[in-house]
Amino acid sequence: MVQLPRLRRRKMLLSLLAAAGLSACQRGSRSGQAGPVADSQLAAETLLINGAGATFPAPLYLRWFSDYRQVDPKVEINFQPVGSAAGIRQFIDQTVDFAASDVAMTDAEIAEVKRGVVMIPMTAGSIAVGYNLPGIRSGLKLSRSVLVQIFRGQITQWRDPQILALNPDLEIPDLPIAVCYRSDGSGTTDTFTRHLAAIDPTWASEIGVGMSLEWPVGIGVKGNEGMSAQMLLSEGVIGYVESVYARDLDLSVAALENRRGEFVLPTPEASALALSEIELPDNLRAFVPDPAGAGAYPIVTYTWILAYRQYRDPAMANALRAVLRWALSEGQALAAEMGYLPLAETVVARSLEALQLIQS
């Protein structure tokens, strides 16, 4: 990776932390509800759409929603990156107008929403395994077995013989391994643990898969931005983070062993190879926990916008369809620019069809 200037890295990290803080300070009035405003005329002309959820796509969503103000200045989208689980909960409780999740809702969750649910794939990306080892900016390899053993707490030192055997050309420092995991309900965690369960039956039976679970070792941090901060500031740390955060904050990331026995970095090309193996069913909910193809990076996922099928306000339904249509068309170029995986044309077409289910 190209090393970013220290000041730029610090500014990027602060901006991500500030974005995460939106949940504490942004509580704009919902469309159709009364509330104090500084300028009643402006309030009457502006439609505010509130959303919350996944931190995985948050940098892209915040960029999309900011840029969309140039397309339609009368629509303002307030998105709070609070994690997938919190976003789904707020969506079920109808305290937001839409949600974002890296895990498609389950049938049981959908059954709780009387207004109906539309799940729309918006973009995709990969989960990187990042680390902080003095003197080692790149080149670290982790096998499937070693990856599981680290996150189970069975390998506790960076100079463990198994790690040294995989990396004979690296001068690995004599440090304890400090495992970090997400403490909030996280789609990133769900995607990461789906992979661990797919490659290790014991993980599947003893620890499991989910947005929140009991980790056998490590310390919990909140959000992709919190995980990134730990990797930047603490030596010996290893954790998992959406690859856009790793790229933009210049984190060191490991090459992971895929099903073919290849050690692959989370590049857009390798991640796209894995994503191409997913066949979306009618409900657009699908995963690929252990892709089989040559050159495929092993941990990828779509990320979804969750919308209601029925909105009380026709203006809200029309505006939400419009902004999501723009994101699925013109906005896909921004996805590639920011390091996410643009959707294939066939997936875009399926997502655009799903938008028509949003009605008032």
Tell me what the structure shows:
This protein has two domains: 6-125 and 302-355, D-Maltodextrin-Binding Protein, domain 2 (3-Layer(aba) Sandwich), CATH 3.40.190; 127-300, D-Maltodextrin-Binding Protein, domain 2. α1 packs antiparallel against α11 and α14 (314-328) packs antiparallel against α16 (345-355). The strands form two sheets. Strands 1, 2, 3, 4, 6, 7, 8, 9 and 12 form a nine-stranded mixed sheet that branches. It has a three-stranded mixed sheet with strand order 5-10-11. β10 and β11 (263-264) form a beta hairpin. The chain has 360 residues and is of the alpha/beta class. It has helices at residues 6-20, 22-25, 40-45, 58-71, 84-92, 107-111, 144-151, 161-166, 187-199, 201-206, 223-233, 243-248, 268-275, 314-328, 332-337, 345-355; strands spanning 47-53, 75-81, 98-101, 117-131, 141-142, 178-182, 219-221, 237-242, 252-253, 255-257, 263-264, 300-308.
Uncertain spans, ≥5 residues at pLDDT below 50? 1-10, 19-42
- Mind telling me the CATH class of the largest domain? Alpha Beta
Q: Can you tell me the CATH superfamily of the largest domain?
A: Periplasmic binding protein-like II
**What is the arithmetic mean of pLDDT?**
89
Helical content, roughly?
A: 25-40%
Main sheet: strands, sense, barrel: 9 strands, mixed
User: What's the architecture of the largest domain in CATH terms?
Assistant: 3-Layer(aba) Sandwich
Please tally the helical runs, counting DSSP H or I stretches of 4 or more residues: 16
- Compute the separation of the termini in Å: 48 Å
Assess the beta-strand content as a share of residues. 15-25%
